[in-house]
Design brief:
With 456 residues, the chain is of the alpha/beta class. Helix content is 46%, strand content 13%. It folds into two domains: 153 residues, Alpha-Beta Complex (Aspartate Aminotransferase, domain 1); 233 residues, Aspartate Aminotransferase, domain 2 (3-Layer(aba) Sandwich). Helix 12 packs parallel to helix 15. The radius of gyration is 23 Å and the shape is globular. The structure holds pyridoxal-5'-phosphate.
Length: 456
């Protein structure tokens, strides 16, 4: 009996191991293929392939986007607000695009979405409209981890004697929940917080943050910008009230969109934005929009749908995921992001293993042991070398990576203080590869040797 159980356990174990090997290979196969959809990824400079590692600032676009923008100019280039067919088709395109954005982030439908200039603009709009009903003496919370886009608009409210509290991070740059509890005891009206850090790649626990805020009676405004290019977002599961996203980081054109939870607004008697929304569901889309960009955004969602198709064609499945029973269009679009996040874990593990061998490296954010709590966004410094010196040397070697504070100003001031609040950031997305990482570390080793020789 013992021998039989043992044998079947061994068989089960090896089968499981085999399945996950297959899954890892299917993910690799799927995402290496995504590169073929991006004409700009094959560029070279001075005979070397360009390594594009600035994805957290803005991603490349696929042929789907390029085709959509071209198609817009040929077939639907018109102004809104009248009755001829081309106008009607263009207006319908905008509604369709809003619906795709709703599918991507898990909103109820297109009525909860508005397009706009960018995410920063949405935070300013939210601060302006929500701020109108705040009184002198009210409290709101912003975080030390956030990009300044979700900091500055709220700081402006301090000019009206609204108390703006900075929720601290710990030494690793993670939000400190003990401090959060203390701040929530003040019964703040609002919490403005990022879903993931664009500097450290740390994923914040949005459902927990939101549940705690709501218990204290506060609304939550989420900065979904960084998370949306890496994970399947679900604004309903996270229960955020307002959010903003940048389409150009989700493989689309330079624009943004906002999410507004209508149910929450209905419960908020007295928030003036509710009445505005009742009059015009696209209150935030005042004036003319970037039609060609919105059409290009549709292309970026077509790209994601293609990735899901490719993944499923390679045997991957969403059956055991939260997307298993989602509506077809959400399944297609957010599905790609689910698979992307799974695949990016391979990139993260590989990158962190290689980085650990670099002498004098100071990494910010989650370590290899907590890799599942982070995105493949790596900010680090090398002892004894100025950050910008690294950036220039990498540029000379055809590596496009960012140095500075990436406008996560408070966070980088805290974490990288000995380096003047600045670090080198290598930010990857699903179209980057293990081979690119290896190529990078080969070049980086040479760059460091050369720089250290100069210093000595
Ligand atoms: C986390 C985060 N929030 C907000 C922004 C600003 O986005 P936008 O350029 O769409 O205003 C950025 C841009 O890098 C970001 O990384």
């Amino acid at each position: 009996m013992f021998a039989t159980v043992n044998k079947s356990f061994v068989l089960y174990f090896f089968q499981r191991k085999d399945d996950s090997m297959n899954e890892a290979q299917a993910l690799k196969h799927t995402f290496e293929h995504t590169r073929t959809y991006f004409p700009s990824l094959g560029n070279s400079y001075k005979g070397r392939p360009v390594l594009f590692f600035d994805n957290s600032a803005g991603a490349q676009v696929s042929q789907f986007v390029i085709d959509r923008v071209t198609d817009y100019y040929i077939h639907r280039n018109a102004q809104k607000g009248t009755i001829f067919t081309r106008t009607a088709e263009m207006q319908q395109t905008i509604v369709d695009a809003r619906q795709l954005a709703a599918d991507l982030v898990g909103a109820t439908d297109h009525t909860e979405i508005a397009f706009g200039q960018n995410a920063t603009n949405f935070f300013h709009l939210y601060a302006h409209h929500l701020g109108r009903d705040l009184q002198a003496g009210d409290h709101i919370i912003i975080t030390e981890a956030d990009h300044h886009a979700n900091v500055n608009p709220w700081m402006e409210l301090a000019e009206r004697d609204i108390h703006v509290h900075l929720w601290n991070v710990d030494a690793q740059g993670s939000l400190d929940f003990d401090h959060y509890e203390q701040l929530l005891a003040l019964k703040p009206k609002l919490v403005a917080v990022g879903w993931a850090s664009n500097a450290t790649g740390t994923i914040h626990d949005m459902p927990r943050i939101t549940a705690m805020a709501h218990r204290a009676g506060a609304l939550v405004v989420a900065d979904g910008v960084q998370a949306a290019s890496h994970i399947a977002m679900d604004v309903k599961a996270a229960d955020v009230d307002f959010a903003a996203f940048s389409t150009y980081k989700i493989f689309g054109p330079h624009m943004g969109f906002g999410y507004v939870n209508r149910d929450r607004l209905e419960r908020l008697e007295g928030w003036r934005i509710q009445h505005e929304l009742e009059r015009d569901s696209y209150f935030f889309e005042v004036g003319s929009q970037n039609h060609e960009g919105i059409e290009g955004f549709i292309g970026s969602m077509e790209y994601l749908a293609q990735v899901t198709k490719d993944a499923e064609g390679n045997g991957l499945s969403l059956d055991k995921t939260p997307l298993a029973n989602s509506r077809p269009s959400r399944h297609e679009i957010a599905g790609a992001m689910h698979f992307a996040h799974e695949y990016e874990q391979q990139l993260t593990d590989h990158f962190l293993a290689k980085l650990a061998d670099v002498e004098g490296v100071v990494l910010y954010g989650k370590s290899a042991e907590q890799a599942d709590e982070r995105l493949p966004v790596f900010s680090f410094n090398i002892e004894g070398i100025e950050t910008d010196t690294l950036g220039h040397a990498l540029n000379d070697a055809s590596i496009e990576a960012r140095t500075g504070n990436y406008l996560a100003i408070n966070l980088m001031k805290r974490l990288a203080e000995p380096f003047g609040g600045s670090a080198l950031r290598i930010s990857l997305v699903h179209y980057n590869t293990v081979e690119e990482i290896d190529l990078f570390f080969g070049i980086f080793a040479q760059v460091l040797t050369d720089l250290k020789m100069k210093v000595d």
